[in-house]
Amino acid sequence: MKDIYFDHAATTPIVEEVIEVMQPFYNEIYANPASSHLPGQKAASALEDARELVTKLIGAKKAEELVFTAGGTEADNLALKGAALARSSEGKHIITSSIEHHAVLKSCKYLEKHLGFEITYLDVDQDGIIDVEELKRNIREDTILVSIMYANNEIGTIQPIKELAAVAHQNDIIFHTDAVQTVGQLKIDVNDLGVDLLSISAHKFNGPKGIGALFVSQGVELVPQMSGGSQERKRRAGTANLAAAVGMGKAAEIALEKLAEKRNKLVLLRDYFISELFANFDDIKINGPKGDYRLPGNINISFKNLDSESILFNLSLNNIAASTGSACASGSLSVSHVLKAIALEEEYIKGAIRFSLGFGNTKEEIDYVVNKLKNIIDRLKSLK
User: Fold this and answer.
1) What number does CATH give the domain 16-257?
2) Helix, strand or coil, per DSSP, at residue 100
3) Is residue 329 predicted with pLDDT exceeding 60?
4) Taking 90 as the threshold, does the pLDDT of residue 99 lie above it?
5) Are strands 4-5 and 66-69 parallel, antiparallel or unpaired?
6) Which residues form the Aminotransferase class V domain (predicted)?
7) CA–CA distance, 171 with 218 (Å, rounded to integer)
8) CA 249/CA 234 separation, integer angstroms
């Protein structure tokens, strides 16, 4: 059996079509898109074509509502810090959740520590879902921004974003969602959702690393977080990463074309994987919700009284790639803040493994992984 990659939530492989469209922008159409000469104009045209393609993937009406960034982390930082600073004269209270990605949580901590903002962290239920009524109860007169992730990167929980955004708008509050894990797996329509700001990252849907985007609804003001030139309509300074933007555009086009097919396949694989796990193991627990409230490709499972790092090490010896959760927090010995937030029992919290599936995965790979897992878990239990 070849290497098996079950860590698509961390990053996805770049598809061949994306690599092909990127290549000319390294040594043929390489001019700075901000330059006024003809080569620069050609580069600028390619950049705007890519912007249009990404815009279509998220259902935005106007391409100028999309700001290219260096990835999801920068998009989150621009959304949180940019919106907070732009509206600070109206209030300094922000609401987010206890299970956000660290790009959001640490941006909030920065605003709290250095700029005097107050942050409210909403609790979640045992499936990681936010209660809309809980948001209503925590809104204050000085609340200016709400940031709730569309889907959780660790346990796959999909939030009721449309309802949460509606509550924010009823109170004249800007609403941001980190949709990095969602884009490419679920249909996104920013206008139907009613969000003001939405973060995405190309490498989560088979595009290149180092490129992302922030949707900024028309009329929403941001204070730029990169000082310099007037690129991206004065919202993000710096020379455009043209080749990566073109690659992101192509990946967005492919993702939109294959969205329904990919979602259906991943749901079938996910549900098959979960059923096989419960058929072959005792003392396990699925972390996160079931069915439609869970990302199609996400399986987060805990093995009772076992250590996830030991399991991952043994999986790696069998050429199987999985993770304990967020790749951005790998190397940290602390327990996942997401698993703490859903009040996972102590005997399960250290044995959590995330398998995240992609379009190229198969049932045969799942069978192989389950078989190897049986040997690994039996051996680890025998050592206790």
Assistant:
1) 3.40.640.10
2) coil
3) no
4) yes
5) unpaired
6) 4-369
7) 18
8) 21
Strand pairing report for 4-5 and 174-178: unpaired
Would you state the pLDDT for residue 334?
72
pLDDT tens per residue across span 268-298: 999 999 999 999 999 999 999 988 999 999 9
pLDDT band at 328 (very low <50, low <70, confident <90, very high): low
Helices (H), ranges, 206-341: 231-234, 242-257, 259-280, 308-317, 337-341
Active site residues: 328
Distance CA 331, CA 328 (A): 9
Q: Given this structure, which CATH class describes domain 4-12+259-382?
A: alpha beta
In the chain, list all ranges with CATH 3.40.640.10: 16-257
On whether the pTM is more than 0.70, the answer is: yes
Phi, psi values for residue 70, rounded to 5°: -85, 5
Q: Comparing C-alpha atoms, which of 153, 203, 155, 202 is closest to residue 178?
A: 153
Q: What is the CA radius of gyration of the chain?
A: 21
Mean pLDDT of 356-366: 97
Q: Is the pLDDT of residue 1 over 90?
A: no
pLDDT (tens digit, 9 = 90+) per residue, 24-83? Answer: 999 999 999 999 999 999 999 999 999 999 999 999 999 999 999 999 999 999 999 999
Kindly list the distances between the CA atom of residue 240 and the CA atoms of 11, 26, 131, 243, in Å, as whole numbers in the listed order. 22, 13, 40, 9
Half-sphere exposure of 320 (CA within 13 A, CB side): 25
Q: H/E element holding 48?
A: helix 38-57
Condensed to tens digits (0 to 9), the pLDDT of residues 233-247 reads 999 999 999 999 999
